[in-house]
């Protein structure tokens, strides 16, 4: 089983990531931590608790950072609506938050488990993860790795250059990509292949029941904002791609690269600049020795869409008939 902590800002696709993690027997979801991103942390936390309440997901939920490290808060209201999860109707949360701040939950959990057994899966801005690194740097060596939704090597979605999770807290992303741990960047290049196509929507509809309805309601809402603002034909299920890779690493191909976060560019702030190993190491980042390349990052390239759809439908079926059923 893969032990993960899902750090998220639900968020429509975040909610599907939660369901995929809770519904697949290969994932041991140790906890959900929340962060400000798609909406403020009050709303993203309430949404996480509501999703868990609605679908019987019994894991600790710890509330995290109310805003980015340095810059002013950027929310994605135009994509996710005024609640952060507009569209589907969710119940009021009926269980309590973990008493700890998300940063302490992450540190405590990582340090309490065997080395190299926990993967951090941030799918919102990386504020909590960066603060955890700063507060207790021992976690960098202790975790198995980080599989993070964010960034891109081709295009942005909030500016021409920057993807939202990085743009919303670029300094936090810089901490995460500079730390000496294994990071897999699951960026827009990959997640724009993870579309809720009519075929996937039909398969979810065929499962039936409240969870299928919830997912279809998510896609109905997000289809409008994605089509209008981002010109994507069908809803992109960004965040679930990271969980899918934890279940089955063959769900996408990867390449080795070296990633830097642009912190100063007038037009490019929040861009993830990728130097691919396959370019033969011809480029370097200039500057001091610490800027030199080592190709220790991994970047997701090509999604196996049928496999991804199978994982989503499988988790939905398991959750619908009760986890643990054969
Ligand atoms: C990312 O931004 C958010 O709106 C989504 O939840 C996803 O994590 C995509 O750019
Ligand atoms: Ca997210």
TrEMBL record:
GO MF assignments: purine nucleosidase activity; uridine nucleosidase activity
Superkingdom to which the source organism belongs: Bacteria
PROSITE patterns assigned to the protein according to its UniProt record, in alphabetical order: IUNH
Protein name per UniProt: Nucleoside hydrolase
GO cellular component, one term: cytosol
Species of the source: Mesorhizobium waimense
Domain Inosine/uridine-preferring nucleoside hydrolase: 4-308
Alphabetical list of SUPFAM superfamilies matching this protein: Nucleoside hydrolase
Biological process, per Gene Ontology: purine nucleoside catabolic process
Record keywords, A-Z: Glycosidase, Hydrolase
This protein's record includes keyword Hydrolase: yes
Keyword Hydrolase found: yes
């Amino acid at each position: 089983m893969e032990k993960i902590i899902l750090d998220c800002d639900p968020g429509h696709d975040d909610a599907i990531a939660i369901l995929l993690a809770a519904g697949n027997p290969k994932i041991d979801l140790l906890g959900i931590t929340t962060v400000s991103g798609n909406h403020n942390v009050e709303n993203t936390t309430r949404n996480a608790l509501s999703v868990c309440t609605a679908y019987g997901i019994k894991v600790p939920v710890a509330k995290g950072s109310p805003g980015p490290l340095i810059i002013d808060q950027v929310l994605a209201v135009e994509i996710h609506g005024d609640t952060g999860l507009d569209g589907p109707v969710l119940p009021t949360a009926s269980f309590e938050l973990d008493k700890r701040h998300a940063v302490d939950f992450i540190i405590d959990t990582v340090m309490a488990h065997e080395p190299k057994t926990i993967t951090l899966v941030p799918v919102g801005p990386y504020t909590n993860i960066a603060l955890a690194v700063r507060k207790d740097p021992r976690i960098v060596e202790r975790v198995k790795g980080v599989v993070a939704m964010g960034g891109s090597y081709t295009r942005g979605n909030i500016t021409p250059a920057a993807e939202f999770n990085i743009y919303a807290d670029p300094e936090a992303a810089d901490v995460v990509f500079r730390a000496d741990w294994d990071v897999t960047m699951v960026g827009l290049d990959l997640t724009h292949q993870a579309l809720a196509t009519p075929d996937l929507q039909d398969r979810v509809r065929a499962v039936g029941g409240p969870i299928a309805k919830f997912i279809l309601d998510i896609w109905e809402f997000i289809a409008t904002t994605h089509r209008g603002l981002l010109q994507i034909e069908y809803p992109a299920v960004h965040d679930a791609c990271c969980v899918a890779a934890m279940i089955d690493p063959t769900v996408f191909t990867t390449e080795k690269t070296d990633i830097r976060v642009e912190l100063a560019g007038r037009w490019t702030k929040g861009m993830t600049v990728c130097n691919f190993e396959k370019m033969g190491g011809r480029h370097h980042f200039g500057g001091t020795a610490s800027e030199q390349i080592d190709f220790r990052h991994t970047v997701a390239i090509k999604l196996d869409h049928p496999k991804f759809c199978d994982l989503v439908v499988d988790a939905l079926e398991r959750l619908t008939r009760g986890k643990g059923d054969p």
